[in-house]
Amino acid sequence: MVMPQSDEIYWLIPRSRRAPGRARTLVREQLTSWEVNEDQADTAELLLSELVTNAVRHARAPQGRDIGVRLARYDGVLRVEVADAGPAVKLTPQVVADWDERGRGLAIVAALAERWGCCPRRHGIGKAVWAEVSQDGAS
Length: 139
Description:
Layout: E1 6-13, H1 19-33, H2 38-58, E2 67-74, E3 77-84, H3 105-112, E4 115-120, E5 127-134
Antiparallel strand pairs: 1-2, 2-3, 3-5, 4-5
Helix pairs in contact: 1-2, 2-3
């Protein structure tokens, strides 16, 4: 019997303008150590960056609360997850004008992820927004 492969790592990152860059660095290092192929690593890194950026800009979390970043791989799937202490809301990708510089984050997530969504945080108040991509390149 073959057991499914499962790995998981979690970081707490201070909620600041530097959070997306810090999260990208941590995830890229972990994906390299897991020997994830470059295409899936690039996609996972971009998804994570969009989710962390949204948590920094829109979470309405209390001052001083960190952002939780979780990276997991299981059964050929990479999952990036960003948790914040902000209230759970219905997430819908926006339609924005060509000249708008903001508002495309969830549209990018919806376009690149095989699956994505939002759920209550596993431990504590707030929510977790997650996105999944296949490790085998099928999306």
